[in-house]
Amino acid sequence: MTDVVRLDAIYAPSELVAREIEGEYILVPLSSGIGDMEDELYTLNSTARVIWNRLNGKRTLRGVVEDLAAEYNGPVAEIEVDVKGLVEELLKRKMLIELPES
Amino acid sequence: MSYQRVKPAIFSRKGGELSLSIPALTGLLVAVLDRGVPFRFRAKGFSMAPIIRNGDVITVSPLKGTLPRWGDVVAFIQPDTGRLVIHRVVRKRNDAYLIKGDNTLKMDGPVPRDSILGCVTGVERNGTEISLGLGPERYLIALLTRRGSILPLLAPVWRFINPLRGRSSG
């Protein structure tokens, strides 16, 4: 099943703990009811981290893209591709949820 | 700020591959327990041998409002050093706890309740669950360890139990 990433949707982290530790940004999933250092963990590169920090359940994905384009003075189309690609990956790994529309 | 495209990337890592310092591990432990779920990780050190050995995988569970009990093996922040330690409660004095490694001579503490992060609820060694030291026998161990290291006392028992465990699982 392909996860559909929508620009007008709002995304937020699912059950996990995210911490910057010794230069690495580490995500520990809690979805199985335990934080397991022997299981799979995730790290993000700096770009993914900048995007991740904005996926906080407050703005639509379009808003996130516009924020990033303004802050980094970059092309919206390119940033949109990158943001959607990362969100798709995060949804696949169940690290992100789409919030229901209010 | 000039724009330079670096594609976002997410990397999957086996937790065991990450070599985290004790402060880093402590940060994760606190963060996970704060969310009300247990934290499973590889223990370092020898102060709780033979109950917990260097490299054993232990599970620390949040206290969720309950008080640590006599004999419990707890994870706590040592007030003097700020370090994460996993030792056994051997006595309660007013609102503080005297805690001690089964295999150490020196008592930790008194340790205030707030410094205790969680309770060890599981120990695994080479993929096998080890229950010795966390069940009712913990009271006896707490009693014995108050006076010194229990390693000399437990070593013969361990040597007796280990071959039996090997036979029953093989």
The end-to-end span of chain A amounts to 26 Å
Oligomer: heterodimer
- Tally of alpha and pi helices of chain A: 3
The percent of residues in helical segments of chain B reads 10-25%
Q: What is the topology, as strand order, of the major beta sheet of chain A?
A: 2-3-5
Q: State the largest interface.
A: A-B, 39 and 33 residues
Mean pLDDT of chain B: 85
Please state the CA-atom Rg of chain A, rounded to the nearest Å. 14 Å
Major sheet summary line of chain B: 8 strands, antiparallel
Q: Got a strand count of chain A?
A: 6
Task: List the domain count of chain B as a whole number.
Answer: 1
Number of domains of chain A: 1
Distance between the termini of chain B: 64 Å
Name of the CATH architecture of chain B: Ribbon
Count the strands of chain B? 9
Number of helices of chain B: 3
Structure characterization notes:
The complex is a heterodimer of chains A (102) and B (170). In chain A, the strands form 2 sheets. Chain A has a 3-stranded antiparallel sheet with strand order 2-3-5. Helices cover 35% and strands 25% of the residues of chain A. Chain A starts with 10 loop residues before the first strand and ends with a strand. Chain A has 3 helices and 6 strands. With 102 residues, chain A is of the alpha+beta class. The relative contact order of chain A is 0.24. Chain B has one domain: Ribbon (Umud Fragment, subunit A). Chain B has 3 helices and 9 strands; from the N terminus they run E-H-E-E-E-E-E-E-E-E-H-H. Chain B has helices at 22-34, 137-145, 151-169, and strands spanning 10-14, 39-42, 57-62, 73-77, 84-93, 96-100, 107-112, 116-125, 128-130. In chain B, a hairpin with a 6-residue loop joins strand 4 and strand 5. The interface between A and B is large, with 39 and 33 residues.
